[in-house]
């Protein structure tokens, strides 16, 4: 499956769409194919009239050589740039599809969007992460099996504490506050894994009454918004 330059709205930007053509030419070359205008149009699910101006743009940027009626070929600069995009696509596709178990077509679409947004440092870190996770998959590491099982569990996505319901129990997932406020919230007990009870806002809408670690605290709405929680299922 390949990136469609005409895919729907999202993170993709005009430069990214042009890079999709560069990546397609590279993929054809790597596979020993012939990246003709007709072939590229078929692969990218676009018209030949759309391919031609995109290739012209790549020629202007010094990334492609293309004579009229000839077969496009990458310049050395184009080949290196295409390799970078292609590699990032493979890393992201593996992470989303093989590790996280996201449906293949959706995993590919996510990779198509995100491959253009990575820089060299983020690519390197993602590669190290996926390489480590891939090794765990290949070797059947217990921690990887636990992760895979966890990914198949029902997910209770976190939300700011301000969006909780009065009387409901929650578990702290993270605190996004910084500096002095973060230090104070952690000291008050808002540590990841800690249980609390949302006791509702005051009649005027601020502050929020919270029961935590056997005590009661009043948090300003702006403070409570930095405490992210997940619903805690009550047994029995």
UniProtKB/TrEMBL annotation:
* Boundaries of every HTH dtxR-type domain copy: 15-75
Q: Give the subcellular location.
A: Cytoplasm
Instruction: Supply the alphabetized keyword list.
Output: DNA-binding, Iron, Transcription, Transcription regulation
Q: Which domain of life is it from?
A: Bacteria
InterPro entries, from UniProt?
DtxR_MntR_Metal-Reg (IPR050536), Fe-transptr_FeoA-like (IPR007167), Fe_dep_repressor (IPR001367), FeoA_core_dom (IPR038157), HTH_DTXR (IPR022687), Iron_dep_repressor (IPR022689), Transcriptional_repressor_C (IPR008988), WH-like_DNA-bd_sf (IPR036388)
Does the record bear DNA-binding in its keywords? yes
Which SUPFAM superfamilies does its entry note? C-terminal domain of transcriptional repressors, Winged helix' DNA-binding domain
Does the keyword Nucleotide-binding feature in the UniProt annotation? no
Name the Gene Ontology molecular function terms of this record.
DNA binding; DNA-binding transcription factor activity; protein dimerization activity; transition metal ion binding
The membrane-spanning stretches of this chain are none
Cellular compartments per GO CC:
cytoplasm
A single Pfam family it belongs to is Fe_dep_repress
Q: Which family does it belong to?
A: Belongs to the DtxR/MntR family.
| Assembly with partners or alone | Homodimer.
Can you say what this protein is called?
Answer: Iron (Metal) dependent repressor, DtxR family
Q: Which organism does this sequence originate in?
A: Aminomonas paucivorans DSM 12260
């Amino acid at each position: 499956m390949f990136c469609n330059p005409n895919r729907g709205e999202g993170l993709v930007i005009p430069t990214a769409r042009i890079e999709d053509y560069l990546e397609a030419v590279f993929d054809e070359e790597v596979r020993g194919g012939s990246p003709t205008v007709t072939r590229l149009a078929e692969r990218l699910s676009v018209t030949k009239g759309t391919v031609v101006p995109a290739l012209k743009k790549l020629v202007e940027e010094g990334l492609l050589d293309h004579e009229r009626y000839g077969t496009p070929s990458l310049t050395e600069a184009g080949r290196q740039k295409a390799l970078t995009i292609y590699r990032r696509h493979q890393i992201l596709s593996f992470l989303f599809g093989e590790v996280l178990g996201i449906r293949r077509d959706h995993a590919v679409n996510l990779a198509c969007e995100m491959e253009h947004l990575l820089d060299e440092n983020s690519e390197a870190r993602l590669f190290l992460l996926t390489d480590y996770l891939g090794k765990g998959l290949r070797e059947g590491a217990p921690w990887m099996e636990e992760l895979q099982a966890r990914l198949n569990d029902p997910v209770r996505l976190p939300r700011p504490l301000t969006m909780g319901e009065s009387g409901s129990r929650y578990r702290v997932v993270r605190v996004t506050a910084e500096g002095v406020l973060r230090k104070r919230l952690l000291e008050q007990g808002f540590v990841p894994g800690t249980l609390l009870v949302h006791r509702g806002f005051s009649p005027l809408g601020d502050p929020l009454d919270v029961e935590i670690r056997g005590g009661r605290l009043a948090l300003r709405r702006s403070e409570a918004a930095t405490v992210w929680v997940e619903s805690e299922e009550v047994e029995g």
